[in-house]
Amino acid sequence: MIAVTDYLRVGTRSMLHAIREARRWDGAQVVPRIEAPALVVHGGRDLLVTDRWAQQVAEWLPKGSLVRMPEAPHGLPWSSADALATTVRDFARSDPPHRSD
Predict the structure, then answer these.
(1) Contact (Cβ atoms closer than 8 angstroms) between residue 40 and residue 66
(2) Using N-to-C axis directions, what is the helix angle for 12-24 and 2-10, rounded to 10°?
(3) pLDDT digits (tens, 9 = 90+) for 42-80
(4) Residue 52 belongs to some domain of the structure
(5) 23: Cα within 13 Å, side-chain hemisphere
(6) pTM higher than 0.85 for the full model?
(7) For the chain, how many structural domains are there in total?
(8) Cross-strand pairs, 65
(9) Does a structural domain hold residue 15?
(10) DSSP per-residue string spanning 47-96
(11) d(CA 96, CA 91)
């Protein structure tokens, strides 16, 4: 619900512009250069980011891990803050951070 409120607040024109820019972004050129362990967290009820896209980003990361939260929508920091915090904490504490895809 937070995302809908945010989208309405910025307006249709701005939202469409942001979506077009996001679609043009070529992560394959940037993401593989991230050398630090990185965690991709995807909500199973996310209507904006597909599971395939989250998987692709995790694969591009040399030290990437993917965690799926089946009941979570887009906007995990707001909708699933506690579960996300636990997931990030566990990832940060793993030695070395694991690849869980």
Answers:
(1) yes
(2) 110
(3) 999 998 889 999 999 999 999 999 999 999 998 889 889
(4) yes
(5) 7
(6) no
(7) 1
(8) 39
(9) no
(10) SSS-HHHHHHHHHHSTTEEEEEETT--S-HHHHSHHHHHHHHHHHHHSSS
(11) 9
